[in-house]
Design brief:
Helices cover 70% and strands 2% of the residues. It has ten helices and two strands, in the order H-H-H-H-E-H-H-E-H-H-H-H. Helix 3 packs parallel to helix 5, helix 3 (48-62) packs across helix 7 (145-157) and helix 4 packs antiparallel against helix 5 (95-110). The protein is globular, with a radius of gyration of 17 Å.
Length: 227
């Protein structure tokens, strides 16, 4: 078994799930920035976040160097935020910031220190809930908010594949309850995730998934300027 997932010859590998997330994320951003009137693009896009969140939890469990894993995520998040600010004068914090907070919370939990875990959780609550209210007149917010940060953490806490999916279902439902609307469609991501084989895939595609996020956003933003 790998992470509570029985290693199977059949099913979806981690790479295949990430490619599905890449495709649905691209569709979502095309809908958000280029075709906002086409709702079904945003509905399809609800699959991306849960799949990425599941893989973030798996990454925390199996990475050989936790410091590098966190630094890579945080550095890319910082780079994206600089671009956001100068291109759109926006303080909105992208999904990479959300996942950076998730990783920090997971690492705090793994120390075995309840005070540190509680402090980390309070810090996440402050940044996601309190800080946006302390910055009126700005668009500051953490993508997917408090419950979004908790989704990878919930997956990480699961000992078996079934538990991971169950814990994810609860946090996705809480997220959907918080946001409402089409966010309920994110629960559909549990179906492809249920087919996860527990295998990474034959090819190492780590940097493709990391670099695609800022590159595709830059491309979509460039197209939006031409329309």
């Amino acid at each position: 078994k790998e992470g509570g997932v029985s290693m199977k010859k059949f099913g979806l590998t981690g790479n295949q799930l990430k490619l599905l997330a890449v495709i649905t994320m691209t569709i979502d951003h095309v809908g958000a920035y280029l075709l906002p009137e086409v709702l079904w693009l945003r509905i399809i896009g609800r699959l991306a976040f849960p799949i990425y969140a599941y893989m973030i939890a798996e990454g925390c469990r199996y990475t050989r160097n936790r410091k590098k894993y966190l630094l890579r995520m945080a550095s890319l998040a910082a780079l994206c935020q600089v671009v956001y600010f100068f291109a759109m004068q926006s303080l909105y914090q992208c999904i990479l910031v959300t996942f950076t907070l998730s990783i920090l919370l997971i690492y705090a939990y793994d120390t075995g220190s309840r005070p540190l875990t509680a402090l980390a959780l309070l810090g996440v609550a402050f940044v996601t809930v309190a800080l946006p209210r302390l910055l009126p007149g700005t668009d500051f917010a953490i993508d997917y908010g408090f419950f979004g940060v908790l989704v990878p953490v919930a997956v990480y806490l699961g000992k078996t594949h079934r538990e991971k999916l169950l814990f994810m279902a609860f946090t996705l439902a809480a997220l959907a309850w918080s946001f409402g609307g089409i966010q309920w469609y994110s629960l559909a991501a549990l179906l492809p995730l249920a087919l996860y084989s527990g295998q990474r895939g034959k090819r190492r595609m780590k940097w493709l998934f990391y670099l695609y996020y800022p590159l595709h956003l830059a491309a979509i933003y460039g197209i939006s300027l031409l329309l």
